[in-house]
Model the fold of this input.
Amino acid sequence: MKRPFWFVIVTILLSLSLLSLAQDRGQPSAKSQERITREVRHELLMLPWFGVFDNIAFKVDGSTVTLLGQVVRPSLKSDAENALKHIEGVEKVENQIEVLPASSMDDQLRLVLYRAIYGYPALEKYALGVQKPIRIIVKNGHVALEGVVDSEADKNLAGMRANGVPGIFSVANNLRVESSK
Done:
């Protein structure tokens, strides 16, 4: 049975479009990646016990989200992972968040560091809002400042304030400078 020429053309076009759809399913589009990134950021910021002494970062690679950072409470690690599992387009969550060791000395240092940084008049502007942009991570007496500030001067000032707290072994100032234009 001989098929008409137009039937062959339509069959080829349909096959090509189905093939391109199958390839697109393997890698989410850039628009889909942006949506997943926005939703992941939102879900993490809405975690009820996510505080200034926790640092959660993430990477989105296709349909896989990798969680990174450090948290004080073990439940926050699992809460972060569970919050992302229901996001449309997320098929896998790799949770590499480190739970910081429980230490009363580190807890005392956290409070003193909080007062030294957020209580200083030039840095008080960062204390506004629910989510503080300067994250104070303390592990066995070693401090890491994570997050975002408006200027190099604020970054250096936060580092100096942290270095001035007695009982600290070292300070890693990992603050990023992003102007708020």
